[in-house]
Amino acid sequence: MSRLSEVDCHRALGLFQAGLRISEVSLRMNLKKTTIFRDRQRLHETDTVSDRPRSGRPRCTTQRQGRNLVRNHMNNRFLSASASSRHTREINNQRISANTVRRRYSTSGLRARRPYIGPILTQRHRHQRTLWAQEHAAWDRIQWRSVVFSDELQFCIDRADGHVRVCIRSGERYQANCVREPDRWGGASLMMCCCTGSPKGAYTLLAGACLDL
């Protein structure tokens, strides 16, 4: 049953103060008699029908355990919450849940997201890419026609790609320990290659299958 709003509390107490009996107020507003008694007592003691502040459910882990959980996920970004919960015990020596682990590291700004899959770039790689972009920023369409752009995509045949999550903060998507490097030779696969932008403006589509057995 949903909690009684303050408006309904004032209405019930107003009917009672107007001369109706508690049983009559209970039937008219479809309330329990004990609810009206409690509201009347709360108004008498605190001069308000608002709920009293509550301490809430006590934490099942200590502050030190919470810091250790965050530290473990910072050291191993691909550590799952369920795996972390299996090695942590509550204050009463019970195993904590995976949701408890997620709540602990979410307070530090960590979130479970799908990782960026690609090569890990060093500081030198980033610098060279920035220089290349700056050198070609002013190129016109005629200059770009002499460049061929190509890309490839691999479809795994004998295994699932999986949905791995990584704990990251804002701005850490491309950090080295948050990137999952792709396994390009991990079993049978189908490779699709495509390139565009030849000197004549033609488009070429190449499709090939590669089986890594």
From TrEMBL:
Coiled coil: none
Lineage, opening ranks: Eukaryota, Metazoa, Spiralia, Lophotrochozoa, Mollusca
Biological process (GO), any one: DNA transposition
Chain ranges of the Transposase Tc1-like domain: 67-137
Chain residue ranges for the region called Disordered: 42-61
Basic and acidic residues bias locations: 42-54
Source organism superkingdom: Eukaryota
Protein name: Transposable element Tc1 transposase
GO molecular function, one term: DNA binding
